[in-house]
Structure formats: C-alpha cells, structure tokens
Design brief:
This protein has about 300 residues and is of the alpha/beta class. It has helices at about 50-55, 80-95, 110-115, 130, 160-170, 185-190, 205-215, 225-235, 260-275, 280-285, and strands spanning about 5-10, 25, 35, 40-45, 60-65, 70, 80, 95-105, 120-125, 135, 140-150, 175-180, 195-200, 220-225, 240, 250-255, 305. Helices cover about 30% and strands about 25% of the residues.
C-alpha cells in the first residue's frame, strides 16, 4: 500500500517544522494542529526537537553498541550497522546531518535524552518499562531473544513450554546474568522475579553474558540466537537455547525523548516510506549473517512471547 495525499495544517503563527521534505504539503486554510495521513495523525503540538533540528540542520544521535545494528567499525572507525544505515536514510530525506554525540550505555541512555544531550538513541528494544520514560518510533525489526543455558545443566531440558520455562526459571536458586537497565534485567524482573540476578558491568560486551555461563558464575542469559551462533564457533558444545520454540519477541527501533510527538511522527512517516520502498529490506540483506538467524522484518504476529 502506498502512502498518498498528505494534508498539513498549522495554526496561524506556528512555523512549519516539516522542512526539506517534498512529502509534506502545507495548507494555510485549515486551523487544526494535526497532519492527517492515511495511517493516522501527526501531531504538531510538541515540536521542540524538530524546531532545533530545523534550525541546526543536524540530528544529534547516540548509539548503543550492539552489532550488527549499531557499532564502531574497527576498520574505518565510523559508526556503522543496520540501524545506522536506516538513520542515514532518514537524515538524507530530511536533508540534515547526523551528529554522533556518544556511545550510550543502557544505564544512562534515557537520562541523555531527558538532558537533551541528543535527539535519538539507536538501536533500542521497546519495552513497557522503557516506554513509560521515553518514546519509540515504529519498530523495523523483531528480535527473537533466546534463553541460553549450559548444555550440561540438567535442570533445563530442551523444548520446554513457556509455562514450564516460567516454573523452572522463576526460582531463587537460578542465577540470571544481567546488565543494569539492559533487556536482561528487564526480562528477569518481568518474567522471573524470584530468580537471583548476577550483575556484570554496564559497559560489558553482550557476549560477556555468555562468558559468565561458561565460567559458571551464572546459569541463564538472554541473547539473540545469532549471538549464540557466533559464540558457539569459538566455544562449541558449551551452551544451548531452551526457548527455540517460544522465543521472547522484542520490537527494535529508535528511542526519543518522551513527549516529542512531532519528531516521533515525522520519523514514523519516513520509516514507513523506507519500508514500502524496500530500502530497509535491502539494508538488512547487506548485513546478512552467516547463521541466517537475523530476520529483516518486523512481524507482530511472530510466534513467541511478546512483552
């Protein structure tokens, strides 16, 4: 389905913040504060970030280090990845530059938005707890998070149902490896509140979660299957995913400051265009993993547990 006619209407005295985008059509006759488009309404009531972007011609961004979505390319020293390429496409259509402010930690990325150090954080999984503190644009990826354990741990047989997973893991004797404010802590507190959390440093590489299992300091870690695949090449026959039949589904996207509705809706509009034009699919294919475990699309009906 193609996005068609856009009617933009702005109250007298409010400047248009939809700059450099041929898609946006202004009408001086209307007196509403909404942009009506086929998939909904875009609000013009909260445009602080958009006005700053308009004036500076730049988007200030932070990124989480989570390859292949966002990372520092060791060969070029540049910020790279799937989410970065998508963000570059958005900036191109807005005719603005991207200003990389910092590599954000899971523990302080929302603080950075609230302090207005940057406008966007990429790449972030959308959760209910994060959504109370920040806003998200439409997801462009569904992550299938696995529950990883040691193969020799007899407490965790293969192919458990979700009900059995809850019963088995939600126990004080089970040690779950976690990073503060990262998805591992959020999932643990949501699904397995009785389990014991073993924290590692918030600046740790995600693979460190798996390392803690092999060191037997923890029993369980939450990571995507392609990360386990990569880890298994170096440490074969050590770990397994017991949630292959019922993965935890997390939508992935960009995060912005809570209340920046204008920025959110403009980003949503451009993202839908990129999806419809096949550009996002092509970007994912450029990063096709050897494991074949990375799916490009966001599928809200994907089989699994959606938090």
């Amino acid at each position: 389905m193609e996005i068609i006619a856009i009617i933009v209407s702005v109250l007298v005295g409010i400047p248009s913040v939809y700059f450099s985008c041929k898609q946006y059509r202004k009408s001086k006759k209307s007196k509403t504060e909404k942009i009506e488009i086929e998939y909904g309404l875009i609000s013009l009531s909260n445009t602080t970030a958009l006005k700053r972007i308009q004036n500076s011609k730049s988007i200030r961004c932070a990124f989480t280090e989570y390859a292949p979505f966002s990372f520092i390319d060791t060969k070029t020293g540049e910020v790279s990845g799937i989410a970065i390429d998508i963000l570059n496409q958005i900036a191109k259509r807005l005719e603005v530059k991207i200003e990389w402010v910092e590599s954000a930690l899971w523990s302080n990325m929302i603080d950075g938005l609230n302090e207005e150090k940057y406008d966007i954080v990429t790449y972030v999984w959308k959760t209910k707890s994060r959504e109370t503190l920040a806003s998200f644009i439409l997801p462009f990826h569904s992550s299938r998070i696995g529950i990883i354990v040691r193969k020799d741990d007899s407490r965790f047989p293969d192919n458990l149902s979700f009900e059995m997973l809850l019963e088995t893991l939600n126990n004080k004797s089970v040690k779950i490896c976690a990073i503060k404010k990262e998805i591992s802590e959020i999932l643990s507190n949501t699904l397995f509140p009785k389990a014991t959390l073993i924290y590692i440093e918030h600046y740790s590489n995600i693979y460190q979660l798996l390392n803690e299992l092999t060191k037997r300091t923890s029993d369980v870690a939450f990571v995507e299957p392609f990360l386990l695949y990569n880890f298994d090449k170096k440490y074969p026959d050590e770990l397994k995913n017991i949630a292959e039949n019922c993965p935890i589904i997390q939508p992935g996207s960009f995060m912005i400051k809570k209340g920046e509705d204008g920025l959110r809706d403009v980003l949503n509009f451009i993202l839908i265009e990129l999806l419809e034009e096949g550009i996002i699919k092509n970007i994912f294919q450029n990063y096709e993993l050897e494991s074949g475990l990375l799916s490009w699309e966001f599928n809200p009906k994907m089989k699994g547990i959606l938090l």
